[in-house]
Write a structure and sequence with these properties.
The protein has 4 helices and 4 strands. The protein has helices at residues 23-37, 41-48, 52-59, 66-76; strands spanning 5-8, 18-21, 95-98, 105-108. α2 crosses α3 (52-59). A two-stranded antiparallel sheet has the order 1-2. A two-stranded antiparallel sheet has the order 3-4. The two termini are 28 Å apart. Helices cover 39% and strands 15% of the residues. The chain is an alpha+beta fold.
Length: 109
């Protein structure tokens, strides 16, 4: 069973919504690449530019900042999208409001 967690995604300096990330898959990729390269977790963290505790948090399914996830993905040569868990289609409409152009109310999803 896949364990998912979230990374905090900030927008315009404000706290944004959380994006779900499959940290179990992330940890598997990270550990496989680390072993393949014959490096210790501390050495990998140093190479990536994150702390060893950040790397440990990722491997334990805990949340870390988006820039740290992206830095690890860059080291892995892996697209962030490979780890992203999109919301279910039936999660509801994305926009609830009144159009500034037509004045009509709509739900877009």
């Amino acid at each position: 069973m896949s364990r998912a967690s979230s990374i905090k995604v900030a927008e315009n300096g404000r706290r944004g919504q959380k994006a779900p990330v499959d940290f179990t898959l992330f940890a598997l990729f990270l550990e496989a690449r680390r072993i393949h390269r014959g490096k210790s977790p501390r050495r990998v963290a140093r190479d990536i530019g994150v702390s060893a505790s950040d790397l440990s948090r990722i491997c334990n399914g805990q949340s870390v900042s988006a820039p740290k996830v992206i830095a690890v993905c860059d080291w892995l040569k892996l697209s962030f999208r490979a780890l992203y868990l999109p919301p279910p289609r039936d999660a509801g409409a994305m926009f609830h409001g009144t159009s500034t152009e037509t004045g009509s109310t709509c739900d877009a999803g």
